Amino acid sequence: MFHGRFQPFHNGHLKVCLEILKNHEQIIIAIANPTRKYPSELIDETPEDIASEINEHRRPKNNPWSYWQRYKMIKGSLIKAGVNPEKINIIPRFAPYDKLPFNWDNILPKKEDVVIYLSMKDKHHDIQKELYTKEGWEVKELPNMNFDISATEVRERIKNKENWEELVPEATRDVIKN
Questions:
Q1: 79 and 172 Cβ atoms separated by less than 8 Å
Q2: Helices 47-55 and 170-177, axial angle in degrees (round to 10)
Q3: Which residues contact 33 (CB under 8 A, 6 or more apart)?
Q4: Is there a contact between 100 and 128 (Cβ–Cβ < 8 Å)?
Q5: What pLDDT was estimated at residue 6?
Q6: Tens-digit pLDDT profile for residues 71-119
Q7: Structurally, how many domains does the chain consist of?
Q8: How far is CA 68 from CA 60, 90, 156, in A?
Q9: Are strands 88-93 and 138-141 parallel, antiparallel or unpaired?
Q10: Dihedral class, residue 161 (left if φ above 0, else alpha if ψ from -120 to 50, else beta)
Q11: Residue from 90, 98, 68, 89 nearest 175 by CA
């Protein structure tokens, strides 16, 4: 399992997912900070709309995309990268870090069938590792998880009307542009 905010899902995230799939039959991706919007409520937005809303503080600047938009970014990116859709499992992650690891026993396969991958780059890495391990989950770190791309950089480039498209997979570009 790999979890994060994916605001937005970028090429580094895709690389990590593909690396996980080299060693596992399936991937579970947990999207943190899900919203309550449903696909029918999503508004067609352009990068300019998102930049405007971030600048005007009408949506959180660090979390501009809804759960469903991020779901489409992730699933579409993995499928376009050649991953069989049946190997992709995307779930929301509701719990704040001080309440990890949430009650995943109810929605995930058995603990012995799940490996949780953490990024050393994540500021919550230490608390996540401690809590997951304490609850009996296997935790691993991928050496290549320290990718040079950050979602913050993508959001900043969109906000500043700079080239951002090279940092994200095609499916992410499609969601952001449409």
A1: no
A2: 70
A3: 5, 63, 67, 93
A4: yes
A5: 93
A6: 999 999 999 999 999 999 998 876 655 555 556 667 778 888 889 888 7
A7: 1
A8: 16, 11, 21
A9: unpaired
A10: left
A11: 68
Span between the terminal Cα atoms of the chain, in Å: 29
Residues facing 139 on adjacent strands: 116
Closest-CA residue to 118 (of 109, 108, 129): 129
Instruction: Sheet with 27-32: list strands edge to edge.
Output: 88-93, 27-32, 2-4, 115-118, 138-141
Nearest to 64 by CA among 33, 88, 25: 33
More confident residue, 9 or 178: 9
Residue 71 CB neighbour total at 10 angstroms? 21
- CA 53 vs CA 62, 98, 115: distances in Å: 11, 30, 37
CATH, residue 119: 3.40.50.620
Domain hosting residue 24, numbered range: 2-177
Whether pTM exceeds 0.70: yes
